[in-house]
Amino acid sequence: MFTDLETTFEYLCARLEHVSPRAELYLQSERIVAIERLKKERNAVVLGHNYMEPALYQTVCDFKGDSLQLARLSAETDADVIVFCGVRFMAETAKILNPTKTVLVPSERAGCSLAASITAQDVRDLRARYPGVPVVTYVNTYADVKAESDICCTSSNALKVIESLNCDRILFLPDEYFARNVARASSKEFIIATRDPASLLKKEDSIEKVLIGWPGKCEVHERFTVDDILGVRKQFPDVIILAHPECSPEVVMASNFSGSTSEMIRFVKEQEAANYLLLTECSMADNIIAENPEKDLLRLCSIRCPHMAQITLEMTQKALELNRYAIEVPEDIRLRAKRAIDRMLEIR
Question: Which domains does the chain have, with CATH numbers?
Answer without folding.
Answer: 5-109+309-322 (3.40.50.10800), 115-217 (3.40.50.10800), 221-304 (3.40.50.10800)
